[in-house]
Write a structure and sequence with these properties.
Elements (H helix, E strand, L loop, with lengths): L3 E6 L6 H17 L3 E6 L4 H8 L3 E4 L10 H9 L8 H8 L1 H10 L7 E5 H5 L8 E4 L10 E3 L16 E6 L4 E8 L2 E10 L6 H5 L4 E4 L6 H17 L5 E9 L6 E8 L9 H8 L4 H10 L6
Length: 301
Amino acid sequence: MAKRVAVLMGGWSSEREVSLVTGRECSRALEAAGFKVSEIDVGHDIANVLSQAKPDICFNALHGRFGEDGRIQGLLDILGIPYTHSGVMASAIAMNKVRTKEICAVVGIPLAEHKVADRATAFAGKAMNKPYVIKPISEGSSIGVRIVKNGDNGPPEEDWRYGDEVLVERYIAGRELTVAVMGDRPLTVTEIRPRTGFYDYTSKYTDGKADHLLPAPVPKTIFDQAMSVALLAHRTLGCRGVSRSDFRFDDTVAPGRLVFLEINTQPGMTPLSLVPEQAAFLGISFTDLVAWMVEEARCDS
């Protein structure tokens, strides 16, 4: 009998719309792989919904708060339903950019100068020497990211809704790289070239806003370092299933340097997403990728 897979999608985070796209794409692929699939737009009654549906496995297609910060993972552990992607601890740590950097620093992962600051100081352009980047401590998909440049008085603050404390990080000139890890295997390195500005939410989810070059046209030493650091971050945080690590490659000074930015335990699975693209480059179809994720699903031990 085919396994019954509930695809958890939607939710109420700032990344709801992306999650719905991810969920629909994964549902189609899982059906093509022979699974019996149901789609669940997650609400606050999700525990009751799952108790009645009794799926064999949950495919976690949620993004943002509740979906990738350890909370839905904890609920699924309590209900005893195996789920895709990382468990409670890895999800909670990876969602918090400050805690991630603290742990990564211990194992020697290269990081940019960074600090936690109050948002008023950060937005006033006084958190550190410019240029620097302001990031929400616990959001994904580049939501809320601001760049404070030389000569700026500071970006507008009126639409900020991500807390009174922010992560402030030295701006690293150069190029954007990313590496997906599938199980215990880094896939390849992609260079992301936004056509305008930086790789923000719009660039990630709007066709034609960014070019993806894979394998990335970077020196072999940088390519190999990105692959090894992505795997090290995946292992150090205790991730499982699929993750994706993002980097900056500063090629403005010889011989260049690689800087780790963050790890995503719930990378997007939309038609424009980087993980399916890297998998396809290595001959792994989208259907095979999501089927593998389901077969690897489990609860925390």
